[in-house]
Amino acid sequence: MTSDPVGRVTSWLKSHIPTRETIADNRLLRPFAKQITRPNLWHMNHRSVPRAVALGLGVGVIIPFMHTVVAALLAVPARANIAIAAATTLVVNPLTIPPMYWLALQIGRWELSRGANIDAAAAAQVSGELAKFLFLVKRESGPLALGILTISVSAAAIGYVASAFFWRRWVTSKYRARRTVRRIARHRSSI
Description:
Blueprint: H1 5-16, H2 20-25, H3 33-36, H4 48-62, H5 67-78, H6 82-88, H7 97-112, H8 120-125, H9 129-190
Helix pairs in contact: 4-5, 4-6, 4-9, 5-6, 7-9
């Protein structure tokens, strides 16, 4: 039995992703149903898709947990596609967080021109392993926060530009294909 894997994934997603109607019928979301079920928040267009990608990537990097919910909530005032904003947060997951945080620490250190070594005099004053660890966390929290913010803003900007570019290319290719089909139909009808 051979079946199309893309078709199987698409049908699985369609059966598991909530629709506007199911969200409006949910008793917890009913007070917000008017805002959440606006059609432009669920349709894909040249404005909502890049906004959603930027929002999802930016929120996903800054908030390591519950970022899907936060991105979906922030998509309403940003007039971004809710489903795409929630989906793009999934780029940040348990497999990508450790390398991303390591990279964020390196970027933060570079931006603040700090070395990786702990000051020996300050470390000598601290006794015990837990105290040394807390000293290290305190010392490296600034570069880490700055690095995460840098990665978040960069990912959001790159995501916005890339999705706007690819959206435009996709729409242009669809337009050209329709134009070619019309041209062929006109040519055949004139024969």
